[in-house]
Model the fold of this input.
Amino acid sequence: MGEHIAASLNRMTLPTGQGKTWTAHRVASVRMVNDIRAYRSAHQDGEWLTMSEAAAKLGVTNHCIRRLIKAGLLPAEQVVARAPYQIRADDLLDQRVIEAAARTARPCRIDGGNQIPMFSST
Done:
């Protein structure tokens, strides 16, 4: 993973603080010194999921997952602000999350027989 970051930084012509090119070792060193942890779902061990992976597991959209996170029903972490969410796979098994994901809050569209139409049928 460090080699990909180093390659990206070198492509963007961003040198290190000493004016050198980036290597995987230098990236790892900077991350360790500054306590920047890796994006957990990138490890692909199944413990952490991206928003899209979580949405696929629950059979919902990314928007629904984002709503559950915002409502505080689905715990999620971000490495830094505006980074992708990291969702623990075990949290998807919570009954409250499953029920909230299954809920469809759509407007009620009952055809009232006694209702006067808003527009004439011309």
About this structure: The beta strands are 48-49, 87-88. The chain has two domains: 2-36, 41-102. The first helix runs from residue 2 to 11.
